[in-house]
């Protein structure tokens, strides 16, 4: 029997486009690795036979060299609110964080601090620490409440004339706190700093309008809500006004002005391609294209509406089923401040997660004591949420 | 009718394992982008359905997190002559060059020069220039003959007590000059320098024995003779003796000692994994595994023997068919000093290349005036070489 909420969900039919949607598995980790689309297997086979196997090296001239920028433009249009020419695909989020942080601090000479919060994703913190050390800067840490994130007040207290760069996550990886990006960007700019947004946990589920917000720099991954597959390449955004002045340290031939001139010295390409270094990972860019088309078809506004409805339903079920067992909501209750996942804490959640995996219910565990439920809007049903939440209760009951 | 040389080629049957081998296309660019194996399409479909789609996020724990090191070990055993624990897969050649160069110069404090040759591949030269600039070092250039490469004499003249690092290509991308890697490594070491070998144009076609040669560092790509697909991830080798002391600047979570602890600060993993940064590109690692299995089955010695026979045949046909038209061999005539490709020069070769592409003969063009023929041993037949060389003569005749 169809769940009452699925029956009225205008996006319900999209679920059938994903591999495994028909199985009894409850998948609460689409915010970590999105499901493949059913279109993927055939697309990859076609690619191998026709494009790689058929065109061979000619594929680079005909299509692949421009693909990172072409997909970047699509991504900009469909989910990032970025005009063409500012987004490219490649490397990993970590490598792109490094490139953009190095570019940013070089563009703010004399300023000595990078501001970020202690709950930012580990790789962001580790890269920032490395960049700070090699460039002679210091990190200025913002302490945040684990169930929330960086507020305008916290950021205003942290930035000043010493701030070169502010590095923030749009959606916090544990709490799902949805930062007030335009306001935080304004505060960083008022202090004369650049701002670098990590969109890993928002791109594809929360509307982002980078141009409108006046963002300087952004990175994100494509294997979460953009379903690009395990380890698919990341994206970066550099606002057009910064492109002529910002350069990055990994000077590779494919970021140079004319790669096939193979000249004696490096000069960066004039546009966003200067943030590329090596040969673009074409195979890894195939899956995200189908997902982008799906998000475009559904509309990012409708995707966000379903995301809010799914997480609100999980919060409601948490109140009803889990709170009596001592489980605490560790995500914002206000949907306007919440991204696409919901975290519940309890001292036994590590064990609960293990027990659930045994039963084909797949959430994630994040210290301290957090059961994290990622509800990817186009591939998750309300029935799945309800069944999963009941099984969480059962697993917890079995352990107490 | 079977070509007389194909009839006696013990590796002839391998050609049927590649997509498109049955078509009339003459493919002389397997040293730039190897053909896909026919096994690839089905392998990718299976991966999407069963591994990515079926295991989802659990795939990381079950298999993917270790995959870069597992394939690295296979690569070490089958084609690099490297014991386990010293090779990993990830990023692009360019990004790995950056990481290893930064690691190397930090390990030789007080030394002020990076030595490399003017004919090294552009990305190697560009990365080295960037690393030198940011670390306050200078580049010391070796001038080489375009039809040859770095000899022991040239290197001995260039290195000294100021040399921190020597960066060399094992096979030169234009001339196919095959460097005397053990001797050049010894010369660099005698000067107290580290040596970084770029194996892009040799790995998979020329036997490499990194451990035996005492090499410190190496990188290479997997889309040429390892048939990993367009933009498949690169590999790096760091000798075990250096692993405890060498660190790289892109401090990402997946190179940290315990990624899922997500602790407050970065500490590098003890082994080769410290050279990883972001999430490993799993989809891009699938194709190279089948090719590695094929090379293992054939044996790298037999692969090299066929490679020498193919390039010698091309040289012989060049003497017969092209030399009378003023074409000059720009690769070593001695097969012991020649890698897996052959370059012929003539002032019209750019136009010849364009004309050949029109007729489904696909070589590469490299300035100045070089027609480069890459003869990937397991997918190229002698009949293909003969037909291709005759068509080169025709194309040239049509232009003069």
UniProtKB/TrEMBL annotation, chains A, B:
Needed co-factor(s): pyridoxal 5'-phosphate
Pathway: Amino-acid degradation; L-kynurenine degradation; L-alanine and anthranilate from L-kynurenine: step 1/1; Cofactor biosynthesis; NAD(+) biosynthesis; quinolinate from L-kynurenine: step 2/3
Quaternary structure note: Homodimer.
Name by which UniProt lists this protein: Kynureninase
Upper classification of the organism: Bacteria, Bacillati, Actinomycetota, Actinomycetes, Propionibacteriales
Entry GO CC: cytoplasm
One matching Pfam family: KYNU_C
E.C. designation(s): 3.7.1.3
Top-rank taxon, per record: Bacteria
Keyword field contains Ligase: no
EC main group: hydrolase
UniProt-listed InterPro entries: DegT/StrS_aminotransferase, Kynureninase, PyrdxlP-dep_Trfase, PyrdxlP-dep_Trfase_major, PyrdxlP-dep_Trfase_small
Catalytic activity field: L-kynurenine + H2O = anthranilate + L-alanine + H(+); 3-hydroxy-L-kynurenine + H2O = 3-hydroxyanthranilate + L-alanine + H(+)
UniProt key word Hydrolase: yes
Keywords noted in UniProt: Hydrolase, Pyridine nucleotide biosynthesis, Pyridoxal phosphate
An individual GO BP term: anthranilate metabolic process
Described function: Catalyzes the cleavage of L-kynurenine (L-Kyn) and L-3-hydroxykynurenine (L-3OHKyn) into anthranilic acid (AA) and 3-hydroxyanthranilic acid (3-OHAA), respectively.
Family in the record: Belongs to the kynureninase family.
Alphabetized GO MF terms: kynureninase activity; pyridoxal phosphate binding
